[in-house]
Design brief:
The protein starts with a strand and ends in a 6-residue tail after the last helix. It has a two-stranded antiparallel sheet with strand order 1-2. The protein has about 150 residues and is mainly alpha-helical. A hairpin with a 5-residue loop joins strand 1 and strand 2. It is elongated, with a radius of gyration of 18 Å. It has one domain. The chain is built from five helices and two strands; from the N terminus they run ββααααα.
Length: about 150
């Protein structure tokens, strides 16, 4: 994972203790004093996946950044189940709206005669961004044992 820091410390008896921590954990901890700030942190992180298709270019989508954010969110130690449920809710909103728009763009691309209105690299990056968000939601649901039915 690219989003984790390896932290080593020495215990009182001299043993080296290694643990991994998400790089954004410190920011989340700073925001954790108030629920509204935690939810704002989660919401702003998920908004990165909400890509504006109309003004989007292939070079505007940084899949590495989206992977970094998804891995951090997957590895954070959330303070409450409300934070987890809020993350799932926000991610599902983005998946449903952006996913539907992506399907429409793919259909438009396949129907166009020249095929240049929306290129394959752009469709691929948009698909990866939605896929990362879907994987994040599934990981969070499984990690916290949330019943989806």
């Amino acid at each position: 994972m690219i989003a984790l820091l390896a932290i080593e410390s020495v215990s009182e008896n001299g043993n080296v203790i290694q643990k991994q921590e998400p790089m954004l954990a410190h920011l989340y901890q700073l925001a954790s004093s108030k629920k509204s700030r935690r939810l704002e942190f989660i919401s702003n992180s998920i908004k990165l996946f909400d890509i504006d298709f109309s003004a989007c270019k292939t070079q505007d989508i940084d899949v590495g950044l989206l992977q970094f954010v998804a891995e951090n969110l997957a590895s954070l130690d959330f303070k409450s189940l409300d934070d987890v449920m809020f993350l799932i809710f926000q991610a599902n909103k983005v998946i449903s709206v952006t996913g539907e728009t992506l399907i429409e763009f793919i259909e438009e691309y396949e129907a166009s005669a020249d095929g240049e209105s929306l290129g394959r690299p752009l469709i691929a990056k948009l698909s990866v961004s939605i896929g990362l968000l879907c994987i994040l939601v599934n990981h969070i649901i499984e990690s916290y044992g949330i019943d989806t039915e």
